[in-house]
From TrEMBL:
Name used for this protein in its record: DUF5666 domain-containing protein
Biased composition (Polar residues): 1-19
Region feature Disordered, mapped onto this chain: 1-26
Amino acid sequence: MSSDTGMSANGNASQSSSKPALAKQTHIRGTITDYSDNTLKVETKDGQTVKVGVDDKTKVAGLKKAEASDIGKGDFVGIASIPGKGGGSDAVEVLIFPAAMKGAGEGSYSWDLTDDSSMTNATVANAVKNVDGRKVTLTYNGGQEKTISIPKDTPIVTIAKATRDDLKKGNKVFVSASGMNGNDTASMIMVGNNGVAPPM
């Protein structure tokens, strides 16, 4: 998923003597404990509280539940997947992008949801329903393809409206941030303002 939407793969910038260090990209997943004074506090699943800055450039988007049947040919999706037990790839979450965001972060790359997960942002070339759920074939970067199975219990979401007023205590968030020396600023905050925990 794209860096503009806060859903890009983590990248550790290389550093050389001739170039300044670049800000490190990071993802934060958890529950809001406080939002005040341009600082968002998030409790992660391991019980730690992480602080991240919010500035004028920080984008906020909501999420709402979607269904596998909403995925159609020509749609642009972001799917986090892991290697399937029988080969291939199994989805662990699906984000259906609105048409205006088609092409955002296109490609397939490593992802930090699990140790062996990858993220594929691509156009649906084919979607086939089967007994175990649904299987989609995705195309990206000028014709590369990847087929991913979507089990029935896979969380599927799409973008919804949200504002900073939705950054309330108890809401679940996915935050894409960057910074140096532990001073991270959010570029994008995905907030579960419709009772949906961001699955990415």
